[in-house]
Write a structure and sequence with these properties.
With 656 residues, the chain is α/β, with parallel strands linked by helices. Helices cover 27% and strands 17% of the residues. Among the domains are: 2-71, no CATH class; 77-263; 381-508 and 546-618, no CATH class.
Length: 656
């Protein structure tokens, strides 16, 4: 047997400790003779080591601070006023939330870190009130609430007399059972007269500790307030009264009840509402007569027993309206109840299964006579007829975005050849009709293909003529139509949709294949209805519509979705060449193949990217025949795929 004896175990000079003997025998390791004594020794040693480590850590910080102060030219050369200004650039701005933007949880520790560099930096930071006028406190545990409250008190005490921007938030998994939230709310309530921006995202049970105008409390500097309690609708008993806030402009509310809140509605210009009933939203709009920006998200069905307006509510200053209706709430009531004469931007997002209330939307725009410039309809289907009616009443539209649901029906593909032709000034001139969307500059579409790619090429050629140095000419585009449009190109900047330019040759597109002078006129092919700019038709046409200048369409983005049970994507030669022309003109063409199962459900959504843009399956070198030729082998044509998709949506089964 071998014995290992430790003769050096001692905590201090006055105490002696029994030896710790561990016997090692051939049978293995035996238990200590006195485990209680050994535990006491280990704990005593641990205490000494911990104290020593803490002392050394503190000493390291002191030495680092001294070194930073001695070696830093920043401290030796710059006055404290300049240092203060530099420190302010380290603080991120306090930004108001937009939609479902993530909560800003960083930035608070920066001021503290600046003060930890050295004594001089600390004095400068602690003496700069602007560093402490913005605070973001994010709670990850209610257990540490007391220490956070103490930090919040010290922080705000250094802010001097400046307006305050305060954001309080908590992780969703924080348990507030038994937590003392009153002290935290009282800490910020002491400075309510200096509130400028308040963003509170903690449970509504904490709201009854907020200062209230019921006690004649006023908020003279309050500019924006965000109240978004996590966890859905709160309790009605927690009332909020911030009605004496003459400077309030931005208000963002979520999961509250209108009957439990009171604000100075007349001065609000930006309103963001989430999870409110339609009647609640209308009642708030009735009182916000100076509203400029409205954002409605997750509108709830049903009502909260508020009286509905007998006449449409007039919102004379409203310029921007965003609606996210992902709950499938019936929106005709809302559209029928408002009038927006100044509306410029309308953004509507549905939940995919319900069409947009196009009739009521058209009635709203017609009733309002608004100069709408941007229109976006996403994840909500709209029919071709409704889109045409909508286009006829928005001649001021500059930007159009259509993002169709994942699986639309064949009857709900809004962007068709007919729609594109109505926006073509050449087509309008030939048919003596008004050109639709004459001011359109940006077109974004995502969905099934209800148009020919050649029609899109003709539209761009008409609205955005090619210039010298371009990769293609109008003659190349004529391969898809059989017509030569050289003398019928419209100058979008100066001419109208119905009349020819004063100088028919001033805006001709250079044609490499043409060697004749610009004064020679092209001869139309037999039967061609081409109208020469210098030769009016022999018959007297009906009175043309009023002259309207046409804008260039300078941005086109198409996400073409093919719906099939066959994971492939092919185009005929004509389509491929048209797509290549569009891409040369700067259009963004993206292709996706949405795979469907027998019941019509989406099982996969593949991005085919640039490879599909030239009509070739990624990794394949197979040449594809024209659409008019017979396919011996391979996947079905686009038409066949779309027919299969329609049958799948209807519940039928189509053989591949």
């Amino acid at each position: 047997m071998v014995e290992l004896v430790d003769d050096h175990v001692a905590l201090n000079d006055d105490e002696a400790y029994s030896r710790c003997m561990v016997s090692v025998t051939t049978e293995g390791i035996q238990e200590p003779e006195d485990p209680y004594a050994e535990l006491a020794v280990v704990e005593a040693e641990f205490t000494v080591v911990s104290q020593t480590l803490a002392s050394l850590t503190e000493r390291v910080q002191v030495l680092k601070s001294r070194i930073n102060e001695l070696d830093s030219p920043f401290v030796r050369l710059l006055p404290s006023e300049i240092m203060s200004e530099i420190f302010l650039f380290c603080i991120p701005p306090f930004e108001l939330p937009s939609d479902d933007s993530p909560i800003q949880t960083t930035g608070t520790s920066i001021s503290l870190r600046l003060g930890a560099v050295c004594l001089s930096w600390r004095k400068t930071a602690w003496g700069t009130p602007n560093l402490w006028s913005t605070v973001t406190l994010h709670l990850t545990s209610a257990v540490k609430l007391d220490s956070r409250v103490h930090l919040l008190d010290e922080w705000l005490s250094r802010s001097g007399h400046l307006p305050l921007s305060i954001r309080l938030s908590a992780s969703e998994d924080v348990s507030w059972a038994g937590a003392n939230s009153e002290d935290m709310m009282k800490s910020i309530a002491k400075y309510s007269s200096r509130w400028r921006n308040i963003d509170i995202r903690i449970p509504s049970l904490c709201y009854h500790h907020l200062p209230s105008c019921d006690n004649e409390q006023s908020f003279p500097l309050l500019h924006s307030i965000v109240l978004r309690p996590p966890g859905g609708q709160g309790d009605r008993v927690h009332r909020i009264n911030l009605s004496i806030a003459p400077s309030l402009r931005h208000l963002s509310l979520s999961c509250l009840y209108l009957r439990s809140i009171t604000f100075h509605w007349e001065v609000i210009t930006h309103l963001d509402l989430e999870s409110f009933y339609v009647d609640e939203s209308l009642e708030m709009l009735r009182q916000t007569t100076n509203l400029v920006d409205l954002n409605l998200r997750r509108v709830l069905g049903g009502d909260d027993r508020h009286d509905l307006p007998k006449e449409p509510i007039v919102l004379p200053a409203l310029e921007r309206m965003i609606i996210l209706n992902d709950k499938g709430t019936d929106m005709p009531l809302f559209f029928d109840s408002i009038t927006t004469p100044s509306l410029r931007t309308l953004d509507y997002t549905g939940e995919g299964l319900i069409s947009i209330a196009s009739g009521e939307l058209i009635a709203l725009i017609t009733r309002s006579g608004c100069p709408l410039q941007e229109l976006s309809i996403s994840k909500a289907s709209i029919r071709e007829e409704a889109l045409i009616s909508l286009m006829a009443i928005v001649p001021t539209l500059v930007k159009l975005t259509l993002v169709m649901p994942a699986v639309p029906s064949m009857q709900q593909l809004p962007l068709t050849d007919k729609v594109l032709r109505l926006c073509d000034p050449e087509h309008a001139r030939k048919n003596n009709v008004a050109c639709q969307l004459p001011m359109l500059e940006s077109l974004t579409y995502s969905g099934g293909n209800g148009f020919k790619w050649s029609t899109m090429v003709k539209l761009l050629n008409s609205r955005f003529p090619m210039t010298e140095g371009s990769h293609s000419s109008d003659v190349e585009a004529d391969r898809f139509s059989g017509e030569h449009k050289r003398n019928s190109i419209i100058n979008p900047a100066t001419t109208d949709c119905t009349a020819a330019p004063e100088d028919p040759h001033a805006h001709d597109i250079p044609d490499a294949s043409s060697s004749t002078s610009s004064s020679s006129s092209s001869t139309p092919s037999p039967g061609s209805p081409t109208l020469s700019a210098s030769s009016p038709p022999s018959s007297s046409p009906p009175s043309p519509p009023p002259q309207t200048s046409v804008s260039r369409i300078t941005f086109v983005s198409v996400t073409h979705k093919t719906f099939s049970r066959n994971p492939s994507l092919r185009f005929g030669t004509a389509d491929r060449e048209a797509i290549q022309l569009l891409r040369k003109r700067g259009a963004t063409i993206t292709h996706r193949v949405v795979l469907l199962e027998g019941g019509g459900n989406v099982v996969d959504d593949q991005d085919w990217g640039d490879d599909a843009a030239v009509g070739v399956e990624p990794g394949a070198d197979t040449e594809v025949e024209d659409e008019g030729q017979e396919h011996v082998d391979g996947p079905p044509s686009l038409v066949a795929q779309m027919q299969a998709m329609a049958a799948l949506v209807g519940g039928g089964v189509v053989a591949p």
